[in-house]
Amino acid sequence: MIKRIIVLIIFLTNLTFSQNHFPEPQNKYLLLRLDDFGMCHSVNMAIQKAMESGLVFSTSVMFACPWYQEAVTILKENPQISVGVHLTLNAEWKNYRWGPIIGPEAASTLVDSNGFFFPSRSKLFGNNPDLTQIEAELRAQVERAVNSGVKIDYLDYHMGAAVQTEQTREIVEKLAKEFNLGIAQYYGEDYSNATYYAPLGSKADSVAKRASELEAGKINLQVVHVGLDDAELKAMKDLNPWGPADMSTQRQGELDAILSKQFRNALKQNNINLITYRTLNDNIGVDNMERPGNFK
Fold first, then answer.
1. Which of 59, 122, 183, 283 has a CA between 20 and 30 Å from the CA of residue 157?
2. How confident is the model over 97-117, as pLDDT tens digits?
3. What is the pTM of this model?
4. Relative orientation angle of helices 131-146 and 166-179, to the nearest 10 degrees
């Protein structure tokens, strides 16, 4: 009995040491995050394809979107995937809009005249949104996620709207604490979404270059937006002028980039450890998160 207690003490000591010393200074880490799961069927199929490749990544689900149930079905068959709630307060696509799951009447300051979320942060916050309504909607999204039967590890934020102001950040932090979840960028991640803006023919080069230049001892975050170049995505046009005009081919390009031999070789040649938000929760802990100085 005494021997077992000693072994347990040694194990807990080593666990604490590991948590206090992650990331290890000599190792290179990359956290891939695939956003917008549940937005539409095409995106769901692209993320499923990434799962089938064996790639290690986290994925953020838009539980306010019509296709989230398909995403949940896919995730239940892939419990190894670290899942987050992509907190959503915007709907940016022409002819394909969504709104608050608490309903437009309960979230009247968060929606346009048709009951849909605004396409941009500026239009949302230009409408003087009620913080009580924001909290109610974000809480409903988290509760839908937690009640879906999928293990939820973290929160992040579609288009940055949920962390736009001090008050909304406090709401996100409150929900994370209540549901014992991590928050994207609260683990000191070095953020990049370079593949989103890279030219179509250079996306694999972009992500491979990032992998080859990673600094040891840091949590490097690469955010990607994948999809299939199909009729569904081709029909979706961004209402914001800064959005890519050829979004369908751009998202297919990002998927091709992270599945490319070029990227896989860069990971192998540079001895990069692929990690997830579940890794961070387990090795750093949600109680040790810190709000970043700026959000990306």
1. 283
2. 999 999 999 999 999 999 999
3. 0.92
4. 30
